[in-house]
Amino acid sequence: MVLRDILHKCLNSRILKLSGTLFKQLVDTIDAVKSKKMVRNLAVFDFDHTVINDNSDTAVLKLINKEVPEEVKQLHKSDGWTAFMQGVFNTLHENNIKEESINNLIRQLPAVEGMPELIKQMNDDLNYDVIIISDSNSHFIDLWLDQNNLKKYISRVFSNPACFENGLLKIRMYHLQNCCKLSTKNLCKGKIMEDFITEQNSLGVVYKRVVYCGDGINDFCPILRLSKNDLACVRHKYKCVDVVLRSKEGRYIDEDGETRIVTSDVYIWKNGYDILEYVKQLQRKESKLLE
Ligand SMILES: [Mg+2]
């Protein structure tokens, strides 16, 4: 209570040149401490083309030397992504591609440069909980994280559930949603992120900053839900950049004619080391302002 009052007085008398955002963050932090909540940061990662430098779903097609049948391709349009992927897995099964061949291919997919280091340091040194939200599937992500010794740094993975049944990989939708038109029916990353933050809050964890890292169009919804103090990291030359920059400048109008504006800070990255350096810089700036 006393520290909160001192901060209010300092701000009013302009002794401290704190920005409004930083001040709010401080007050929130003090309130969280007062209510005995744990104050941390949250890092949210997409998986394909963000953590790994490939698309795990389409990568498995390399195991068959032919095109996916036309009726399987049509499933994407008619029934969505998970129906299409089930069609792909059925095709692999029909072509006698074994479980171990699929698993080995996924295990060997390359990481984006610096991403393993970023995930480790955010978790170990920078006070971040790390989660993954991906439209790939739980089986592939679990295999890859295990192979790359990253599981212990990831608090939760949200993806379409999948597992092998008699040699056939079966996939289901993560959820069925129709409240977000920016997202596919099987996965609204923004809702998942917000629900996770609310759940954590009820368990006594408050996030003072959220850093979201992604590359694709389905990363736009969660980025729109970030606040002023958060950070959206979008991959250079990938689809998300254009949409996010247009939205940041107030030039993105959705299909209902509504202008959608990104309010968080935006950083364009080429590898994980870029993001790591930028996040460290942010923390150094905040520390200096408080000196
Ligand atoms: Mg992606």
From TrEMBL:
Keywords of this entry: Hydrolase, Magnesium, Metal-binding
Pfam families in alphabetical order: Put_Phosphatase
Tree of life domain: Eukaryota
Gene3D superfamilies, sorted: HAD superfamily/HAD-like
Cofactor(s) this protein requires: Mg(2+)
UniProt keyword Methyltransferase present: no
Protein name per the record: Pyridoxal phosphate phosphatase PHOSPHO2
Active site: D46, D48
SUPFAM superfamilies: HAD-like (SSF56784)
Signal peptide: none
GO MF annotations in UniProt: metal ion binding; phosphatase activity
InterPro entries: HAD-like_sf, HAD_hydro_PyrdxlP_Pase-like, HAD_sf, Pase_PHOSPHO-typ
Cited PANTHER family: LP01149P, PHOSPHATASE, ORPHAN 1, 2
Binding site for Mg(2+): D46, D48, D215
Family under the similarity heading: Belongs to the HAD-like hydrolase superfamily. PHOSPHO family.
Binding positions for substrate per the UniProt entry: D57, D135
